[in-house]
Protein backbone atom coordinates (compact mmCIF):
# COMPACT_ATOMS: atom_id res chain seq x y z
CA UNK A 1 0.00 0.00 0.00
CA UNK A 2 2.89 2.32 0.83
CA UNK A 3 4.53 1.55 -2.47
CA UNK A 4 1.41 2.47 -4.35
CA UNK A 5 1.14 5.75 -2.49
CA UNK A 6 4.80 6.53 -3.18
CA UNK A 7 4.39 5.78 -6.88
CA UNK A 8 1.29 8.01 -7.05
CA UNK A 9 3.19 10.79 -5.30
CA UNK A 10 6.00 10.58 -7.78
CA UNK A 11 3.58 10.48 -10.73
CA UNK A 12 1.51 13.50 -9.68
CA UNK A 13 4.05 16.13 -10.84
CA UNK A 14 4.48 14.35 -14.16
CA UNK A 15 0.72 14.11 -14.64
CA UNK A 16 0.35 17.81 -13.83
CA UNK A 17 2.86 18.63 -16.54
CA UNK A 18 1.17 16.44 -19.09
CA UNK A 19 -2.43 17.54 -18.39
CA UNK A 20 -2.25 20.46 -20.82
CA UNK A 21 -1.88 17.84 -23.60
CA UNK A 22 -5.44 16.83 -22.99
CA UNK A 23 -6.55 20.44 -23.62
CA UNK A 24 -4.47 20.58 -26.77
CA UNK A 25 -1.71 22.78 -25.43
CA UNK A 26 1.21 20.73 -26.65
CA UNK A 27 3.73 23.56 -26.33
CA UNK A 28 2.77 24.19 -22.71
CA UNK A 29 2.99 20.48 -21.88
CA UNK A 30 6.44 20.15 -23.49
CA UNK A 31 7.62 23.26 -21.67
CA UNK A 32 6.35 21.83 -18.39
CA UNK A 33 8.22 18.55 -18.93
CA UNK A 34 11.47 20.20 -20.04
CA UNK A 35 11.50 22.98 -17.46
CA UNK A 36 13.06 22.04 -14.19
CA UNK A 37 10.62 21.88 -11.37
CA UNK A 38 11.43 24.23 -8.55
CA UNK A 39 11.99 22.45 -5.34
CA UNK A 40 9.51 23.10 -2.63
CA UNK A 41 10.93 25.44 -0.11
CA UNK A 42 10.30 24.75 3.45
CA UNK A 43 8.48 27.55 5.16
CA UNK A 44 10.63 29.19 7.77
CA UNK A 45 9.40 28.71 11.28
CA UNK A 46 7.16 31.52 12.42
CA UNK A 47 9.09 34.18 14.24
CA UNK A 48 7.64 35.43 17.47
CA UNK A 49 7.59 39.17 17.52
CA UNK A 50 7.60 40.98 20.83
CA UNK A 51 4.86 43.56 20.48
CA UNK A 52 5.03 44.82 24.06
CA UNK A 53 7.22 47.89 23.27
CA UNK A 54 4.98 48.75 20.35
CA UNK A 55 1.87 48.44 22.50
CA UNK A 56 3.48 50.57 25.21
CA UNK A 57 4.40 53.20 22.65
CA UNK A 58 0.87 53.15 21.28
CA UNK A 59 -0.54 53.54 24.79
CA UNK A 60 1.82 56.49 25.39
CA UNK A 61 0.75 58.08 22.10
CA UNK A 62 -2.91 57.67 23.02
CA UNK A 63 -2.32 59.25 26.43
CA UNK A 64 -0.45 62.15 24.82
CA UNK A 65 -3.21 62.55 22.25
CA UNK A 66 -5.80 62.74 25.06
CA UNK A 67 -3.67 65.34 26.83
CA UNK A 68 -3.32 67.37 23.65
CA UNK A 69 -7.05 67.13 23.02
CA UNK A 70 -7.73 68.47 26.53
CA UNK A 71 -5.25 71.30 25.96
CA UNK A 72 -6.93 72.17 22.65
CA UNK A 73 -10.33 72.22 24.35
CA UNK A 74 -8.97 74.49 27.10
CA UNK A 75 -7.35 76.78 24.55
CA UNK A 76 -10.58 76.95 22.55
CA UNK A 77 -12.47 77.92 25.71
CA UNK A 78 -9.80 80.52 26.53
CA UNK A 79 -9.98 81.93 22.99
CA UNK A 80 -13.77 82.10 23.30
CA UNK A 81 -13.44 84.07 26.55
CA UNK A 82 -10.92 86.44 24.95
CA UNK A 83 -13.22 86.85 21.96
CA UNK A 84 -16.14 87.68 24.28
CA UNK A 85 -14.00 90.24 26.13
CA UNK A 86 -12.90 91.80 22.85
CA UNK A 87 -16.53 92.02 21.77
CA UNK A 88 -17.39 93.79 25.04
CA UNK A 89 -14.46 96.20 24.56
CA UNK A 90 -15.55 96.90 20.99
CA UNK A 91 -19.12 97.60 22.13
CA UNK A 92 -17.84 99.90 24.91
CA UNK A 93 -15.60 101.68 22.41
CA UNK A 94 -18.54 102.14 20.05
CA UNK A 95 -20.67 103.55 22.89
CA UNK A 96 -17.88 105.90 23.95
CA UNK A 97 -17.43 107.05 20.37
CA UNK A 98 -21.14 107.84 20.10
CA UNK A 99 -21.09 109.65 23.44
CA UNK A 100 -18.05 111.68 22.37
CA UNK A 101 -19.76 112.59 19.12
CA UNK A 102 -22.83 113.73 21.05
CA UNK A 103 -20.64 115.73 23.44
CA UNK A 104 -18.80 117.28 20.51
CA UNK A 105 -22.09 118.31 18.94
CA UNK A 106 -23.26 119.77 22.28
CA UNK A 107 -19.94 121.63 22.55
CA UNK A 108 -20.41 123.11 19.07
CA UNK A 109 -23.88 124.26 19.96
CA UNK A 110 -22.62 125.75 23.24
CA UNK A 111 -19.73 127.41 21.41
CA UNK A 112 -22.09 129.03 18.93
CA UNK A 113 -24.31 130.25 21.79
CA UNK A 114 -21.29 131.64 23.69
CA UNK A 115 -20.13 133.40 20.53
CA UNK A 116 -23.58 134.88 20.07
CA UNK A 117 -23.69 136.08 23.67
CA UNK A 118 -20.16 137.48 23.34
CA UNK A 119 -21.06 139.36 20.15
CA UNK A 120 -24.21 140.73 21.77
CA UNK A 121 -22.25 141.69 24.92
CA UNK A 122 -19.49 143.42 22.96
CA UNK A 123 -22.08 145.15 20.83
CA UNK A 124 -23.86 146.42 23.95
CA UNK A 125 -20.54 147.62 25.38
CA UNK A 126 -19.71 149.48 22.18
CA UNK A 127 -23.20 150.99 22.04
CA UNK A 128 -22.95 151.96 25.73
CA UNK A 129 -19.50 153.48 25.20
CA UNK A 130 -20.75 155.43 22.18
CA UNK A 131 -23.76 156.64 24.13
CA UNK A 132 -21.51 157.80 26.98
CA UNK A 133 -19.27 159.61 24.53
CA UNK A 134 -22.25 161.31 23.01
CA UNK A 135 -23.51 162.22 26.45
CA UNK A 136 -20.07 163.52 27.41
CA UNK A 137 -19.88 165.75 24.35
CA UNK A 138 -23.44 166.85 24.84
CA UNK A 139 -22.73 167.80 28.46
CA UNK A 140 -19.64 169.74 27.46
CA UNK A 141 -21.67 171.73 25.04
CA UNK A 142 -24.52 172.29 27.45
CA UNK A 143 -22.41 173.05 30.49
CA UNK A 144 -19.95 175.87 30.14
Top keywords for this entry?
single chain; 144 residues; mainly alpha
So what's the overall shape? rod-shaped
- Give the radius of gyration: 57 Å
- DSSP strand (E) fraction? under 5%
Structural class: mainly alpha
Mean pLDDT value? 86
Distance between the terminal alpha carbons, to the nearest Å?
180 Å
The low-confidence parts are none
- Sheet bearing the most strands, described? none
H-E order = HHH
Question: Could you describe the 3D structure shown?
Answer:
- This protein is mainly α.
- It has a domain at 1-36.
- The protein has three helices and no strands.
- The protein has helices at 2-23, 26-34, 52-142.
- Helix 1 (2-23) crosses helix 2 (26-34).
- It is rod-shaped, with a radius of gyration of 57 Å.
- The protein starts with a helix and ends with a helix.
Summarize the model shown.
This protein has 144 residues and is mainly α. 85% of the residues lie in helices and 0% in strands.
Amino acid sequence: MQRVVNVVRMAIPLVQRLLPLIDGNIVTAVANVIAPRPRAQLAPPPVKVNLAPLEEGLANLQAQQRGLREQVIEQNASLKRVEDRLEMVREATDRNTLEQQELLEDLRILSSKVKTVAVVGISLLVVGFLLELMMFFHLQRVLP
